[in-house]
Amino acid sequence: MPCVGDFDAKGLERLRNKIEEVTRAVLPSADFRMIPYKNVQEEIGDEALFNACKEGGVCFGDLAGRVNADYGAWCMVNKYSNKFIFTFQLYSVREKDLIHTKEYDSYNPKNIDDMIEIIKKEVPIVISEKIPGVKISKTPSPAIAGGISGVQTTGGSYELEGGKRYLINLSTEPVGAVLSFNGVPDSRCSKTPCKIELSAGNVRIIANLEQYEIADTTVSIKQNNQSINIKLKANFGVLEIKPAYSDGIGKDKQWNLSINDKPYSLGEVRLNPNKYKVKLNHECYENIGFDVGINKDKREIFDMASKIALKKGGLDLSVERNGEPASEPVFVNGKQVGETPFSGAVPLCAKIEIGKNKEVVGVKLKYNEKVKHTHKGAESQEGKYLTDSRDGKKYKIVKIGTQTWMAENLNYSGKNDDIGSCYEKNPKNCEKYGRLYDGNTAMKACPAGWHLPSDKEWDILENFAGGQKIAGKKLKTKNGWNNRDDGSSGNGTDDFGFSALPGGSFGDYGRFDYVGRIGLWWNSSESGSYYSHSRSVRYDYEYADYSRIDERYLLSVRCIKDNNAAPSIKGNTFTDPRDGKVYKTAKIGAQTWMAENLKYNAENSKCAGNCGSDGQLYNWETAKRSCPKSWHLPSKEEWETLVNFAGGKDIAGKKLKASKGWSFIGTSGGGTDDYGFTARPRGLIGCGRKNCSEQPLVRDDCDHWWSDYGDDDQAFGWFICKKNDWTSLSSFAATYLLSVRCIKD
Question: Is residue 472 predicted with pLDDT exceeding 80?
């Protein structure tokens, strides 16, 4: 008489012992012999079968048959939610079927003692009703009848107990239920759908799924691959919570929901019938709490619209322009609420802006506390213009972060009206959108003191405007852009006065296009033969984008002001510990360069002119390991950073060259040496693939410096020459001898 279920071993043993005790008291000792559970294994002699049945519980009838018993008893304890169910079963070996199975849940048992009371009351009744010759009240034994009876013989044909088994497919609606068979769970069906082998005959199946009623059904197992589907009845109601926001504040943040202190996702929540405590909290709103009663098949709706209240903090706000206090309008979530100096209660998560250009105020408010903040506003741009000395045209300018930009597209047409083109060749479009230029013309179109921005300079602008994903919207003008396909506005907010307009382009299919929809601007970074980089913003997106465009196309130009702050290099030197040589250094932007060519006499290097001042020349392999500790051979990207800082490849040569030593056909050919780089012509030595024994001088009117970018045959270097102001990247045979400039780690 085994017992299994949701109790520990000691508890189940108490139940088994009580059943055996009650059964022994009821059965007539003269007619029945009871085999205690602990003696069954000894009698069957099959430990594996005994343990399998003990753990699985589905073959206790087989155990009864193996010990030649007529009946087998079994108990099961299940716990569903907070409810215990005690089941007692009786199996007939002769009939090969359950002759009794019943769940005694109406007693509402809460512990082992309650179940023992059930056993004491119910088990004697079951045994007396189901086993012939057993009565609850014992009566005096009848007189012993004379004669011979009860003759038994051994032997006969062997029959396999347990009957035929079939593979059964089980499913539930909905899926995921836990199944038990004849009161015993089976791990193979811990979640439906599942497959299991079951003995032929009637089997009781119980399906349990959270928030559904327990399904209890008896099915007849009679064929292989039989499919059984059990439909479960819902035992839940629905709580629906409709979130709300005030003026969209905090919509990008999550409302947090807990029910009886357990977290849930907002929306529709299924709950068993009961009373619940609900809590809602949000970073931007006051907490909300309520009680709700859930009934089966009912829906309760909580609409937050009339219940929400914004969390607020106090704000004392002032603004300074050019170091002086100023009075400017204050906007909270787009609505003007006063002017500076401002004092008032403000929602924690509202967007606070100031001034007619609505500059965002970066202040962190505190709940139910006052915060004092002074906004350091951008310098006023009113009255700030650039006059192009070439044609007298005036352009608005704007300081955005550390950069100063033209706030209009360039409209320079050259001395003979031969540079660029108006959109559709209409002069009115030049007045509105500026001119369109091909890539090569754009490189030198900006006026003195200004230059075509590099990729890096565009990146700085986009990052200041919040990053690529939203920079487009913040840089576009507030009008002049087409509506999107869904009818919404394609205009921007022009937060910084950049005033980007959709000037279109010329090129696709040899025609003008995209005006009103796209603004495209050249930058100074090349992208291979015939291609250059560009930046763009569109009417239908908020992001800024970049791409490679054929240099023959016509795009707009925005110029950025040169950074002429040349650092002093007096006293900035470095001593090479390997040979004691001293080098001037120059800090240019974020980089620190040697201001002289390397003079270290490495193996395979050669002297270039005056070794003391001109430095050595190195092949690429030697150059890669020639710089002293804490310095290195510049990468291709580090050279590009230097060139872009110096205004781009078209004018960087002039700014990096020394003022002397570059004479060319009667002119100085020299530069302005704006940053102390002090480049001078050193030349290079062209060598064969195998050696440099001939030492032919290939060029002496330029200087060439290796980068670390290359392979065994070819490597890249930068060069500057006498006859022009530009600098360029080119490939050289790795056996050539070039100069080396080291950059600090």
Answer: yes
Same domain, 204 and 101: no
Q: In CATH, what number is assigned to the domain containing residue 94?
A: 3.40.50
CA distances (Å), 273 to each of 236, 277, 279, in order? 6, 13, 18
The model's pLDDT over 296-344, given as tens digits with 9 standing for 90+, comes to 889 999 999 989 999 999 999 998 876 778 888 999 988 899 999 999 9
Q: Are residues 75 and 215 in the same domain?
A: no
Q: Angle at CA 667, nearest 5°, toward 666 and 668?
A: 130
Rounded to an integer, what distance in angstroms lies between the CA atom of residue 56 and that of residue 51?
8
Instruction: Tell whether 248 and 272 lie within a shared domain.
Output: yes
For residue range 356-406, what is the model confidence (pLDDT) as tens digits? Answer: 778 888 888 999 999 999 988 655 444 588 889 889 899 999 999 889 999
Q: Does 152 map to a domain?
A: no
On whether both 697 and 588 belong to a single domain, the answer is yes
Q: Which of 196, 147, 193 is nearest to 173 (CA)?
A: 193
How much is the pLDDT for 703?
A: 81
What are the φ/ψ torsions at residue 26 (nearest 5 degrees)? -85, -40
Domain total for the chain?
6
Q: Is the pLDDT of residue 568 over 60?
A: no
For residue 419, give the amino acid letter. I
91 and 121 in a single domain? The answer is: yes
- 3 state SS for 62-85: HHHHHCCCCEEEEEEEEEECCEEE
H runs (alpha helix) in 384-537: 427-433, 439-442, 455-464, 468-475
> What would the pLDDT profile of 395-415 be if each residue is shown by its tens digit?
999 999 889 999 999 999 988
Last residue of a domain, one of 173, 199, 231: 231
637 plus 669 within the same structural domain? yes
The backbone torsions φ and ψ at residue 320, rounded to the nearest 5 degrees and listed phi first, read -125, 135
CATH number, position 257: 2.60.40
726 and 675, same domain (yes or no): yes
Distance CA 735, CA 618 (A): 9
Q: Indicate if the pLDDT at residue 221 is higher than 60.
A: yes
Q: Is the pTM of this model over 0.85?
A: no
Asked if residue 568 is part of any domain, the answer here is: no
Q: Could you tell me the residue range of the domain that residue 31 belongs to?
A: 3-130
Where helices occur in 363-403 by DSSP H, the ranges are none
- pLDDT, mean over the chain: 82
Residue 567 counted as domain residue: no
Question: Is the separation of the CB atoms in 723 and 669 below 8 Å?
Answer: yes
Q: Phi and psi (nearest 5°) for 505?
A: -160, 175
Helix (H) or strand (E) holding 48: helix 47-56
3-state secondary structure 324-361: EEECCEEEECCEEEEECCEEEEEECCCCEEECCCCEEC
Q: Based on the fold, state whether residues 331 and 455 are members of the same structural domain.
A: no
Specify the 3-state DSSP secondary structure of 241.
Answer: strand
Element (H, E) at 285: strand 285-294
DSSP-assigned letter for residue 200: S
Q: Is 611 inside any structural domain?
A: yes
The SS3 assignment for 606 reads strand
